[in-house]
Fold each of these.
Amino acid sequence: MKSRWVLFVPLAIMGLLFGAFIYRLTVPGETLIQSQWINKPMPLFDLPPATAGVAGLKSSQLADGKPRLVNVFASWCIPCRAEAPQLEALKAAGVPIDGIAIRDRPEDVAQFLNEVGNPFDRIGSDMQSSVQIALGSSGVPETFLIDGKGIIREQIQGVILQEQVPEIIAKLEAMK
């Protein structure tokens, strides 16, 4: 009788492992990767212009005393198009916005800006994604709230939603 019970132990262990596997599939862990640069100065970089007629971007320009947004985007990014009206609303509210174009051709950036509008003061071209990686950015679009000293205070992963616009404005005002 005792030997029969021992035969079911491996089956019970497999059942528990299968149950744990199913649980992790239905209740995923943290899906966002937070930047390790929060509350630290922007990493040093000097990016050339992403397209003609718009200045490039240097990290030193982000410590000019004015809180601002730095938006990581790409012309090939569909969610970036969905985010464009919110960036325009932030610009209209007086928020300075700089951009970092990821793995993008100048003519594609120009066409993107022509189609969705240009809320950016400056746009740096990050062809190798080196600045994106240094920032701990995990994708596009992604936005960083930078205080007037060039310190990254917050990271917004994904599309900025319309209902987030007043909150972002308030956060930047509080950084003044």
Amino acid sequence: MLSRILSLLFPPTHIEILVSNTEYLSPHPVNVRTLRGSIVLTCTHYDDMSANAAIKLLKKHGSIQAAKLLSQLLYDTLLEELSDIELWNPKHIILIPMPLSPKRKRERGFNQITKVCAQLPAELRTCVVIDILLQTKHVPMQKTLTREQRLKNVSGIFSISHPDKVRGAHVILIDDVITTGATLDEAIKTFEKAGVSVTAVALARA
């Protein structure tokens, strides 16, 4: 009875209905390039209605259902990629969610990529580490900035808290949506400066 009353008072939104009716997000992996030319493996296109709804619901409300859908999408996309890394690269693999600045983390209350990684199968979930890459500076929204401004805006915003934990490892860096990739590029550069090999992955490409 209570749930019925609540549903009448707070009817589900179109996005919530779409996500609740989605059982599976089909991967459509494509490699894209960032502003600096780094290659990023993307799982699907942001124009995919179900993927778009899941990402929005995850970022706004931390939806577990959305996190599960996106986690399966990520896992399916990574299967072949991980097999290639394990075949050609003897280093152990670490999965690192893109961090939020302390300010944005306080505002949102959670890191949406961490929620996605928490839903991965156990064999990958044990590879997830969230305390290594830190975003030490807050970056305002970059939609209206030029290429040069975007690159300058994100310069030096990341640091590695425990270099010893990634030494000799292969990092898979996971983000949600890539547009220009300026922020992701800076994170990649931070690891590369530390001598760490990186594969960048985004749930969706804009």
Amino acid sequence: MGKHCQWRERLQKKGYRLTIPREVIIEVLRNSTSHLSAEDIYMELHKKYPAIGLTTIYRTLELLVQMKIIVKFDFGDRRSRYELSEKYGMKKHHHHLICSQCTKIIDYTDFINEELELIEKTEKRLMKKYNFSITSHVISFTGICLECKKDQT
């Protein structure tokens, strides 16, 4: 079964219907290379589905986050952003580089072995120290992108 059908099966198993807003929101996220906010999704959907309101989008996004179909990020710009989780999306696990000036978000996937080993060690120590089961992590680095650096000179 492809990733496309897995999220449908997950919703159905939990007793949720496959509504048009749920399907089209996931489709927008699947076709995007950006980290979209609820407002971005609304603007994209409003062209074809004007009856789907922003409140419905917010509610649907929260349900999809709870179902672990999508992931919610807070990059410090006061707007939650969303993307499909690794299980249901096309992207593999990644971290983020965030420009504090232009707010560009760069997905960072080319981890070197030392980084992965450090993260694994850190997770193991945290789990032991706090008796806490870590199931995932989000790492974001904030700085200034190349374009903004050029503008400063």
